[in-house]
Structures are given as structure tokens and as C-alpha cells.
Amino acid sequence: MRRAGHPGVRATLRSLRTGLVTGSVCGLVAPLFGLVLGLQVSPVLGTVVMAPFVALSSLTGTPFGEMSGLERWVGLALSILTGAALGAGLQHICRRGLWTR
After folding, report:
1. Are 31 and 49 in contact (CB under 8 A)?
2. Which of 5, 30, 35, 77 makes a 20 to 30 Å CA pair with 42?
3. Contacts of 97 (CB under 8 A, 6+ apart)
């Protein structure tokens, strides 16, 4: 029996899936905007948006401009995973109203 006001399991999974998809799309688009933001608007904001690529670059010791194609694909995958995790987490926080507690 479900409590009043408690979303069901299906609603929670649907919300999680929405957050994952939204975050994945943002993670796919973020590197493109990160380059523009870093070069034109704010280097700090660009670095934050490009964090998966910056982390991969520091782990491999390869400058960003000299990354191979495989390293760039891995960076894009990391960016998508990071965006999906952030999107799902934010969706969960917003759905539960955890920021008001």
C-alpha cells in the first residue's frame, strides 16, 4: 500500500530516466560550449564545463590540443557520464525537495 504523497517506483524510475537523458544531452553539448565559454567569456567557467577533458588531459599527461582521437572520444564519454550523473542527481534533489530540509 502506497502512502499518500509518496511517488511510486515507476514515477521515481521515470524521473531518474528523465534526469539521465537530460544530463547525457547536456554532457554531449557541454564540451562545445565549454570551448566557446573558455575562449570568449570566462576561462574559469570554461574550465569547469570542460572538467572531464581537463582531468583526462592531466591523467594522461597530454595537452588538450595534442589529444589523439581515442582520447577525445574517451573525454566525450566521460563528459556524457558526468552530465548524466549530475542530471540524475539534480532531478532527484528537485523531485524530493531535499534542498528545503
Report:
1. yes
2. 77
3. none
